[in-house]
Amino acid sequence: MILAALEDVHKDYLMAKTRVPVLKGVNLQLSAGEMVCLMGPSGSGKTTILNILGGIDFADRGRVSVYNQDLRAMDDKGLSEFRNKTLGFIFQSFNLIPVLTALENIEYPLVLQRVGKKERRRRVEAMLEAVGLSAVKNHRPDELSGGQQQRVAIGRALVTRPKLVIADEPTGNLDQATGKAVMELMKEINEKQKTTFIFATHDPMVSSYTSRILYLLDGAIVKEERL
Amino acid sequence: MSALFLALRNLARNKRRTILTLTAITIGIMALVLFDGFVRYTLWGLRESTIRNGLGHLQLSTAEEYFTTGHFDPFRYLFSDPDRIIKRLKALPEVKDVVPQVTFSATLAGAEKSGIVMVQAVPAELSRTLLSFRHIVEGRDFTAADRYRVILARGVAKKIGARVGDILTMMAVTGSGGLNAANLEVIGIAAPGLQELDNIQVYLDLPTAMDFLDLAGVPLLITVLEKTEYTGEVLKTITQRLKPQLDQPLAVKTWEELAGYYRQVQGFYRSLLQIVRFIIMLVVIFTIVNTMTMAVLERTQEIGTLRTLGTQKTGIMKLFLAEGFWIGAFGGLSGLLMGLAASCFINTVLGGIYIPPPPGMAEGYQAFFVPAFATVWQNLLLAMAVSVLASIYPAWKGVKLKIAEALRYL
Q1: In the list A24, A98, A207, B247, which could disulfide-bond A219, CB 3.0-4.6 Å?
Q2: How far is B390 from chain A (nearest CA, A)?
Q3: How far off is chain B from A227, nearest CA to CA, in Å?
Q4: CB of A36 within 8 A of CB of A2?
Q5: Residue A1 confidence (pLDDT) above 90
Q6: Which of A95, A159, A160 is the best mutation test for B, with the most CBs of B within 10 A?
Q7: What's the whole-number mean pLDDT along residues A188-195?
């Protein structure tokens, strides 16, 4: 089953009155349950593809479909709900809300979904257990290590049971051992829950956990490798 | 995890900035509470001195015209049976006393100088009720036995160079149309408190005035109430119950209608209060806009994250408006408490603050700060409303951020 697709997607950025093409006719299909990796040098368009798939940036041309939804046709409210219910996001610098504890950070997307408090707490506690953070659930991000923060971010991305998790350089700020542990965790979730992951990374260790690698260069997919 | 909850946590992030913002609002609201308390006390003082300097709470005459031109011809407006009205009025529990009064203009001549004066004549035994704010600064007050003696306002005494013990000559038109003159002994110099009375007022006892003017009755009955707040109630009783039972026309004026000067001062102080309030609120607005703009700037990436997680634009708006609300609420409440504490300190420990004579007053006074309950709360609500309104623009800047750009912001 095709979960997400980009068809002939073009995207330019305006830089000092000059249009710089970032994506030049990208075609991409993601199947449900797979782990895909985008690799390429900085500026090759990896993050732009993730942003477009996540509905936080828009293609200038081409068709973008995620979970049978045409993202370009949705308004801001619809897109916000879509991101909240269908997608999970993991960032290189974790992007946790600093004033919330680990538990509250994971809980936040469920609050937006208006899940009842009892059910919310049950799911958050289960997620804390799954990412191994029950002991530090009441700690704020600045009281956690980088690895623990990324685990909170993974918990936050997965607690809503999304169809697709978008991870931009998820190990970029972690040492090798912690990065590996984080990838192990995501692989385990992928296998158990069949959650689809797409990564953007420079790190070969990350790509070693995926089933398909797409190589980008100057805004185009130049090579595909199945593992 | 409401916007209010998140906003409260966010306030504690940059403590120094939050404290500075709260301090600015606290000082602003404290100043407003104090100024409001000062204005309220000053207006109360002016009101009571106006009422208790001879105006009374309610004035009764036989015709409306008396209140405009009656001082020049009081003889046309005499009550046929004033004792009956006085008795009926005094039976009301809100009424402290009813003072018959004659007011007329006259010429008063001293040894070297003379001048036009306004004569107020009331029974000696009732003068303290009606003129309780008049202060005898030299000599003495009237006794019931005094006849053809006069008390001068300080300004009048100064103008004609009179002192206690001097004999002055008063000339005025009598009830029969002739000109009468009489010698009067100065027994006292008084400070009425109000500048407009200080330069023109002299006081006689009522029997002397009636004899001097050849009057058979009085044209004016002044009602002094136990409390100024009873004015409306007693006015209603007089017009609805007393007036229809009289066989003579009755015109009634309240102190508010008669005290034009008080109304002007009240309007002036109220305008001043609004201007001060406006200036303080402008400072509050600029402080909040600055604080919230900084907060939006600092949290750009966080706004991007919240939006990515599914927070709608309205959610971001609510978050910053909630911060404005808390800043206004905490700043306003602490300003209110500080203002009340400062008022208490000034009133009890310092015993008030000496204020030099304001415009229209003959003397300075010890000012106390008595903020009104209603305006204190109004100031708190104002601080909260202004803080929320001032947060709209910065919040809107946060709402307008493009998510992808916000996430890249460092």
Answers
A1: A24
A2: 23
A3: 31
A4: no
A5: no
A6: A95
A7: 86
Establish, for the pair of chains A and B, how many residue pairs have beta carbons separated by less than 8 Å. 64
Q: State residue A134's pLDDT score.
A: 87
Q: Which residues pair with B149 in a beta bridge?
A: B185
- For residue A156, which residues of chain B lie inside 8 Å, CB to CB? 309
Phi, psi (rounded to 5 degrees) for A62: 105, 175
| Interface contact B12-A99, CB threshold 8 A | yes
- Interface touch B302/A54, C-beta < 8 Å: no
Provide the pLDDT for residue A164. Answer: 92
Closest Cα of chain A to B7: distance in Å?
Answer: 10
Task: Tell me the whole-structure pTM to 2 decimals.
Answer: 0.77
Q: What is the ipTM of this complex?
A: 0.91
Q: Is A75 on the interface with B (CB under 8 A)?
A: no
Q: What is the mean pLDDT of each run of 10 residues along chain B (410 residues)?
A: 85 87 92 91 85 85 83 78 85 89 90 89 80 83 90 92 92 86 94 81 92 87 90 89 79 88 87 91 90 90 93 93 92 93 91 76 77 86 91 92 85
Q: Compute the distance between CA of residue B141 and CA of residue B65 in angstroms, rounded to an integer.
A: 32
Within 10 A of B20 (CB to CB), how many other CB atoms are there?
13
SS (H, E, C) chain A: CEEEEEEEEEEEEEECCEEEEEEEEEEEEEECCCEEEEECCCCCCHHHHHHHHCCCCCCCEEEEEECCEEHHHCCHHHHHHHHHHHEEEECCCCCCCCCCCHHHHHHHHHHHCCCCHHHHHHHHHHHHHHCCCHHHCCCCHHHCCHHHHHHHHHHHHHCCCCCEEEEECCCCCCCHHHHHHHHHHHHHHHHHHCCEEEEEECCHHHHCCCCEEEEEECCEEEEEEEC
